[in-house]
């Protein structure tokens, strides 16, 4: 029985861990969209984009609910098979005891064995379930470990890179085919910007990406 339970557990964890990883990925996208919507709520209302952001939020919720439902269904599948296996072993034991010659075992002993067998089955199933839940929740530690390996941003002021004392005070800024993204795997938010700013000019920049923000 223990060997079969271990095989069932390994079979379950092979897919459950991947489902938890997918669930974490879709949950991050939902949290990012919610944060952007809250920070840009004023601009969203100004441009009357409430329906679009609400529809996208519902889409992300549905996208996150799919792996979560699969995780729930997988653990229920495991529990059901463990209970069926435990009940089968208990039934077989009771059937064998019933076939033994009368007087082989004391009736009180047989009743005690069956009673403790039921309690042991419940404890056994709960133990396997807790082990699987622990293995699934450790996936969160993997995600934290991934963030720990991300290179940190540079300090605001780098003493080694300070300009010289005779550095020009006036000048201009020229952008040629500027392309910017928030992170390496994100889509471009600025696509081929080419412009020139003279020294002393006051420039207003309007950024429109998911949430329109004015700076």
From TrEMBL:
Top-rank taxon: Eukaryota
Any one cellular-component term (Gene Ontology): membrane
Keywords attached to this entry: ATP-binding, Membrane, Nucleotide-binding, Transmembrane, Transmembrane helix, Transport
The keyword Chaperone belongs to this UniProt entry's keyword annotation: no
Name the UniProt record assigns to this protein: ABC transmembrane type-1 domain-containing protein
Entry GO MF terms: ABC-type transporter activity; ATP binding
Domain ABC transmembrane type-1 stretches: 1-120
InterPro entries attached to this UniProt entry: ABC1_TM_dom (IPR011527), ABC1_TM_sf (IPR036640), ABC_transporter_C-like (IPR050173), P-loop_NTPase (IPR027417)
Xref: PROSITE patterns: ABC_TM1F
């Amino acid at each position: 029985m223990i060997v079969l339970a271990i095989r069932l557990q390994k079979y379950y964890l092979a897919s459950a861990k991947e489902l938890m990883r997918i669930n974490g990925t879709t949950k991050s996208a939902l949290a990012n969209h919610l944060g952007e919507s809250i920070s840009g709520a004023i601009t969203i209302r100004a441009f009357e984009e409430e329906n679009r952001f609400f529809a996208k939020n519902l889409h992300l919720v549905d996208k996150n609910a799919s792996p979560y439902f699969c995780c729930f269904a997988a653990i229920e599948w495991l529990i059901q098979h463990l209970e069926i296996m435990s009940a089968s072993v208990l039934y077989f034991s009771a059937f064998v005891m019933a076939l033994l010659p009368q007087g082989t075992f004391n009736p009180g002993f047989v009743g005690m064995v069956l009673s403790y067998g039921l309690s042991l089955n419940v404890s056994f199933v709960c133990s396997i379930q807790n082990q699987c839940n622990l293995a699934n929740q450790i996936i969160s530690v993997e995600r934290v470990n991934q963030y720990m390996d991300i290179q940190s941003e540079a300090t605001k002021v780098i003493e080694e890179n300070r300009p010289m004392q005779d550095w020009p005070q006036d000048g201009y800024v020229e952008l040629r085919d500027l392309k910017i993204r928030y992170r390496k795997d994100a889509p471009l938010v600025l696509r081929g910007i080419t412009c020139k700013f003279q020294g002393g000019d006051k420039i207003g920049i309007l950024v429109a990406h998911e949430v329109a923000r004015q700076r």
